[in-house]
């Protein structure tokens, strides 16, 4: 069903995508699928090599599980140890439909919450499978010695998270991601000791090698020596995380990037829903131009903190100039804007609503802090009501972190918070098997687009990464390999390797030869500001069209005025970052185009033109209940749009309201 | 707060085999709200503008959990603030006019890659010897089948909180990795899931630690004092108990 | 299987067991155990010395009693020697490995502060230890293998001629330089025990969130008490004991 005529934004249309969802009722699909797939003979598994890119939750768990099955695995990470992948920074917890609390949770309920939370832009079958395997994840992690929080009786403790009506979140203090990652990392290191996994650290994937249309290898830069290395394999698993750093400032780690995914996109993997990004409302605000990253504080703070700004711009300006402090403002001079606008949910409105409202009051000039880009999160009332001790018990470590970063004591002065980019729901398009549009190339975890629709629920990122790695990919990759003749992993003599290696080498040499005047950091900051202003938490057709002109101009500047020091044959971080920025510039443009094309508001994508009278996101289900998967055509600004139409057979689409 | 003018003395070493030396740089007008690494970002931006090579240092999450960053600041690993990794150290800990020396983690087991970046692969090789339970995916039984008392679970967590930054090694006068290894041994010693491999784990991990060329622990306790997660040296004592029990039972230092 | 058989052969068993003490943990267990053994010995030695305050007769009687233990004395002495040798050899091995573990050192050294236990004592163990080792040799040569009855150092004890160790000691400590040297070494011994005592417990795996604090405090007190205890004797002799006339 291809449509050759471009749409009104001059976007070319391609054929619709098939997602290979198995037949049968929703709750039987995964089981049916597993009974029907191809399986590699155990004696033959050792003849196959799987290349895993990235060693976060998805990558480490996939590497370990595939090696346990008998495949040879090569795992690559940019960090100096696989244990440092950014999954480690997840604080809150991991959801699972265990129903240990007897509060009526079920696989269906977790499935339903995830679909609804994603504002009906996720694929039912994938999400249901995710909910199904969620229970196995917890079992697996406990067996690995992950020290989840427990009650005195010795059983696992749960909390409710992100406004969920049941307690299904398992956690390990505020370091759940760390503990889960160390579990997966340990499982992978065990396979290293057994000789089934080889880990390559300080390695960055810079291109995909396709032979006869299938993913058969990768080109890697050794970040320590600068050497370009080639690796051949029978399948490539991209577990490379999200692209939040396109905004320059985000809660992502500094080395998180889109390069591996983007270079696969350039090789033919479609990129889906790039405009679906998630903003987290409770981050520590920017303090100056030198700011390199943003730090997130658990959303739980909004359970007891009250969000406010001064009622008038004049008072806000006095605060910005430091003439008065927040405690000097009388109660009647404060605007508790969330409580005022959303009397039912108050300070507990969803992430996107809280974030957008903070942005609005700051746009009105009522923001606080030196930059005027912050709102207060005030615990004075809670301290009065519960006592300082109780507040300390609940939030002590968060307060401490806030104090460490800002130098202010939140027990005495209200916290300043501001939204920040936190997670990206979009990613490489994958079918039910997690395979991209390139056969043999898979995308797992945050790197794919599949499970969270337009908005991800709290404590679901960890769940998805581990579900993909432990329980989905080992089956689906095996099914693919069963039909493939194993390659010789030592043989990278095919012309396709040379071509890819030469391309990578050429780009590196080109970057180093520009010798302009701007640093990578300056240009990245510039891109980030544009993305934040126009493709951030609220978007307009006008702004998007503007930025679609500005990004190509910035790309010109980048390729003509970049200044890099050092050489390619050594550790050279600026060079790494330059390569990543080149891809962010392309991605940024695609995000803007995707946002422009999606003329509706849903989840993390808010188009100001599409809102209810109350300022709520207004979906356009008739026109946009599809996944927008973009095909690269050789020119970043002219991709082809392929649609995967979403079928909702099990849930009814409703509009959310938090009034 | 007023801004700071500082003198930085930084270890520069172009490559693993090249000789290195301390170089002096001045940075002006440093906001006290900056993090230490942002201060170095500012220096690097200036160096690039001046056509000089930026100072290489390692970092990733910049929120104190990934364990990538690590600088010895004025002779103290991760600098002056307790329970704080370098990335969360802020410039308000310093005074105008301060001279700050910045050096890489020093240990033979951690060769310098460039400037302040070192290779901590030794830690991965130690973990590969036993920092896990040998449970294949899908083999697990129900998560609540074995109750674990809250106290044991908490103790296991306290040990598991290690971020693997290796400040313990950097700060130890003997460059010993005992705190790191013991934290992993302790995590599993406190949990029933870790017990089937208890003896094997401690023997093999200690053996690998020694093979990597780390020093012996002579109980200076400097490791605990610099640890961003406050991992206690009680874990080292526990590791020694576990080790002697395992070794005497096995009758050898190896399994 | 073949390997297992090899390990079961006799020399294999011994070297396997010894290998336990050739690891970073095992070595510290040896230094800790021997160190605590030496503390016990020092306490005994100090108690014996106290008989000097009673007078020549009591001291010589005590010395004679030890000497008349006969073969048992040799066993004890050899045991003691072994403890010393193991402590010293392992300590030297540990220290040289530690130095080798960081060939390129820091330009600037700092202290992290509490709860670190790093202090002057902990950082000078090898130096204080080596000085003590030299001192022990001198001490043994000076007194144990010093002039005996043949050289006129005889004392009549209950009608029996015994060695007059008392006179040798008193004569020695009438020399101000020997007094000063002795006291200086005893001070270093205190410094050594200051870290050594609690460290030995930790090396043996004995840690407790509360008791370890007590052990650390006890170590400080013990170090001070032992140093002072050994100070008193030479100073007392130098100031108050008359040189016996021959």
Provide a descriptive summary of the structure in words.
The complex is a heterotrimer of chains A (659), B (255) and C (246). Chain A contains 18 helices and 21 strands. With 659 residues, chain A is an alpha+beta fold. Chain A has a five-stranded mixed beta sheet with strand order 1-21-20-12-18. In chain A, strands 7-3-2-11-19 form a five-stranded parallel beta sheet. In chain A, strands 13-17-16-14-15 form a five-stranded antiparallel beta sheet. In chain A, helix 3 runs parallel beside helix 6 (176-193), helix 3 runs parallel beside helix 13 (461-481) and helix 15 (520-534) runs antiparallel to helix 16. Chain A is globular, with a radius of gyration of 24 Å. Chain B is of the alpha+beta class. Chain B folds into two domains: 4-113, Ubiquitin-like (UB roll) (Roll), CATH 3.10.20.30; 121-135 and 145-250, Alpha-helical ferredoxin (Fumarate Reductase Iron-sulfur Protein, Chain B, domain 2). In chain B, the strands form two sheets. Chain B has a five-stranded mixed beta sheet. A two-stranded antiparallel sheet of chain B has the order 6-7. The mean pLDDT of chain B is 97. Chain C is mainly alpha-helical. Chain C has a two-stranded antiparallel ribbon. The longest helix of chain C is centred in the middle third of the chain and has 30 residues, at 71-100. The interface between B and C is large, with 54 and 51 residues.
TL;DR of this structure?
The complex is a heterotrimer of chains A (about 650), B (about 260) and C (about 250). Chain B contains 8 helices and 7 strands; from the N terminus they run ββαβββββααααααα.
Overview features:
heterotrimer, A: 659 residues, alpha+beta, Flavocytochrome C3, Chain A, domain 1, Methane Monooxygenase Hydroxylase, Chain G, domain 1, 5-stranded mixed β-sheet, 5-stranded parallel β-sheet, 18 helices, 21 strands, globular, B: 255 residues, Ubiquitin-like (UB roll), Fumarate Reductase Iron-sulfur Protein, Chain B, domain 2, 2 domains, two-stranded antiparallel sheet, 13% strand
């Amino acid at each position: 069903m291809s449509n050759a005529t471009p749409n009104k934004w001059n976007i070319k249309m391609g054929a619709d995508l098939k997602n290979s969802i198995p037949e049968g009722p929703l709750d039987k699909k995964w089981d049916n699928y597993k009974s029907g797939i191809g399986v590699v003979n155990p004696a033959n598994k050792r003849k196959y090599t799987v290349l895993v890119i990235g060693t976060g939750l998805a990558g480490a768990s996939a590497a370990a599980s595939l090696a346990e099955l008998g495949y040879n695995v090569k795992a690559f990470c940019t960090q100096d140890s696989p244990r440092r992948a950014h999954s480690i920074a997840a604080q809150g917890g991991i959801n699972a439909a265990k129903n240990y609390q007897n509060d009526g949770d079920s696989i269906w309920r977790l499935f339903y919450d995830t679909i609804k939370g994603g504002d009906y832009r996720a694929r039912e079958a994938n999400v249901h499978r995710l909910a199904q395997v969620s229970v196995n994840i917890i079992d697996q992690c406990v067996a690995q010695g992950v020290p989840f929080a427990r009650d005195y009786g010795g059983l696992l403790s749960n909390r409710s998270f992100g406004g969920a009506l049941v307690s299904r979140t398992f956690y390990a203090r505020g370091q759940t991601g760390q503990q889960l990652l160390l579990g997966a990392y340990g499982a992978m290191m065990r396979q290293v000791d057994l000789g089934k996994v080889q880990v390559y650290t300080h390695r960055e994937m810079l291109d995909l090698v396709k032979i006869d249309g299938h993913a058969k290898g990768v080109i890697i830069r050794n970040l320590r020596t600068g050497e370009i290395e080639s690796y051949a394999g029978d399948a490539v698993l991209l577990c490379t995380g999200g692209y939040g750093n396109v905004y320059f400032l985000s809660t992502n780690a500094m080395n998180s990037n889109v390069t591996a995914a983007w270079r696969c996109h350039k090789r033919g993997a479609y990129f889906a829903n790039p405009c679906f990004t998630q903003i987290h409302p409770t981050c520590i605000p920017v303090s100056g131009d030198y700011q390199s990253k943003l730090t997130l504080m658990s959303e739980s703070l909004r359970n007891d903190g009250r969000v406010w700004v001064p009622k008038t711009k004049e008072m806000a300006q006095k605060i910005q100039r430091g003439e008065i402090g927040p405690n000097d403002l009388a109660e009647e001079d404060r605007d508790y804007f969330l409580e005022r606008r959303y009397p039912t949910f108050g300070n507990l409105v969803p992430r996107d609503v809280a974030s957008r409202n903070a942005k609005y009051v700051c746009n009105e000039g009522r923001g606080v802090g030196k930059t005027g880009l912050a709102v207060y999160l005030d615990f004075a009332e809670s301290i009065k009501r519960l006592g300082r001790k109780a507040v300390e018990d609940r939030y002590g470590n968060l307060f401490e972190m806030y104090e460490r970063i800002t130098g202010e004591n939140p027990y005495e002065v209200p916290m300043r918070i501001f939204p920040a980019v936190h997670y990206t729901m979009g990613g490489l398009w994958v079918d039910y098997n997690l395979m991209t549009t390139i056969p043999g190339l898979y995308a797992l975890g945050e790197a794919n687009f599949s499970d969270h629709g337009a908005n991800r629920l709290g404590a679901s990122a960890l769940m998805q990464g581990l579900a993909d790695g432990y329980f989905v990919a080992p089956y689906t990759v095996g099914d693919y390999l069963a039909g493939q003749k194993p390659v010789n992993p030592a043989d990278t003599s095919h012309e396709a390797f040379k071509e890819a290696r030469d391309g990578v080498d050429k780009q590196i040499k080109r970057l180093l030869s520009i010798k302009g005047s701007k640093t990578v950091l300056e240009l990245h900051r510039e891109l980030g500001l544009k993305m934040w202003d126009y493709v951030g938490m609220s978007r307009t057709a006008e702004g998007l069209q503007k930025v679609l002109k500005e990004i190509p101009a910035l790309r010109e500047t980048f390729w003509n005025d970049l200044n890099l020091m050092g050489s390619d044959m050594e550790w050279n971080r600026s060079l790494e970052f330059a390569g990543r920025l080149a891809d962010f510039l392309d991605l940024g443009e695609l995000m803007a185009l995707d946002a422009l094309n999606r003329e509706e508001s849903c989840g993390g994508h808010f188009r100001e033109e599409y809102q209810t009278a109350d300022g709520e996101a207004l979906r356009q289900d008739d026109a946009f209940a599809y996944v927008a998967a973009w095909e690269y055509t050789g020119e970043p600004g002219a991709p082809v749009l392929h649609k995967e139409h979403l079928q909702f057979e099990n849930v009814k689409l409703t509009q959310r309201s938090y009034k | 707060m007023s801004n700071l003018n500082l003198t930085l003395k930084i270890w520069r070493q172009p490559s693993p085999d090249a000789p290195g030396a301390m170089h002096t740089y001045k940075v002006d007008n440093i906001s006290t709200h900056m993090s230490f690494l942002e201060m170095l970002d500012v220096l690097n931006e200036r160096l690039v503008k001046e056509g000089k090579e930026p100072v290489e240092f390692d970092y990733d999450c910049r929120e104190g959990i990934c364990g990538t960053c690590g600088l010895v600041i004025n002779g103290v690993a991760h600098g002056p603030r307790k329970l704080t990794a370098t990335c969360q150290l802020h410039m308000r800990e310093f005074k105008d006019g301060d001279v700050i020396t910045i050096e890489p983690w020093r240990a033979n087991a951690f060769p310098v890659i460039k400037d302040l970046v070192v290779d901590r692969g030794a830690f991965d090789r130690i973990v590969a010897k036993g920092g896990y339970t040998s449970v294949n995916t899908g083999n697990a039984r129900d998560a609540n089948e074995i109750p674990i008392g809250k106290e044991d679970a908490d103790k296991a967590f306290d040990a598991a909180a290690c971020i693997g930054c290796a400040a313990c090694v950097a700060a130890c006068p003997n460059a010993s990795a005992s705190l790191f290894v013991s934290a992993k041994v302790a995590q599993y010693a406190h949990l029933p899931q870790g017990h089937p491999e208890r003896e094997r784990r401690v023997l093999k991990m200690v053996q690998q630690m020694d093979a990597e060329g780390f020093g012996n622990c002579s109980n200076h306790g400097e490791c605990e004092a610099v640890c961003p997660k406050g991992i206690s040296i009680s874990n080292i004592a526990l590791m020694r108990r576990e080790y002697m029990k395992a070794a005497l039972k096995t009758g050898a230092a190896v399994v | 299987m073949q390997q297992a058989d090899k390990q079961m052969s006799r020399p294999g068993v011994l070297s396997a067991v010894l290998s336990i003490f050739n690891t970073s943990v095992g070595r510290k267990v040896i230094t800790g155990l021997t160190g605590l053994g030496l503390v016990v010995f020092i306490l005994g030695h100090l108690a014996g010395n106290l008989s000097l305050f009673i007078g020549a007769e009591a001291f010589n009687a005590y010395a004679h009693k030890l000497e008349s233990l006969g073969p048992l004395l040799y066993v004890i002495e050899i045991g003691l020697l072994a403890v010393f040798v193991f402590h010293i050899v392992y300590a030297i091995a540990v220290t040289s490995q530690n130095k080798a573990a960081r060939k390129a050192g820091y330009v600037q050294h700092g202290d992290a502060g509490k709860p670190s236990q790093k202090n002057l004592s902990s950082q000078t163990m090898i130096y204080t230890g080596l000085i003590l080792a030299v001192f022990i040799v001198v001490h043994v040569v000076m007194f144990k293998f010093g002039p005996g009855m043949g050289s006129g150092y005889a004392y009549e004890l209950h009608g029996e001629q015994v060695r007059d160790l008392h006179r040798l000691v008193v004569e020695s400590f009438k020399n101000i330089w020997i007094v000063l040297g002795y006291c200086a070494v005893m001070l270093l011994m205190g410094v050594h025990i200051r870290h050594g005592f609690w460290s030995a417990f930790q090396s043996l795996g004995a840690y407790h969130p509360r008791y370890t604090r007590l052990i650390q405090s006890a170590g400080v007190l013990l170090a001070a008490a032992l140093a002072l205890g050994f100070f008193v004797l030479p100073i007392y002799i130098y100031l108050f004991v008359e040189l016996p006339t021959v």
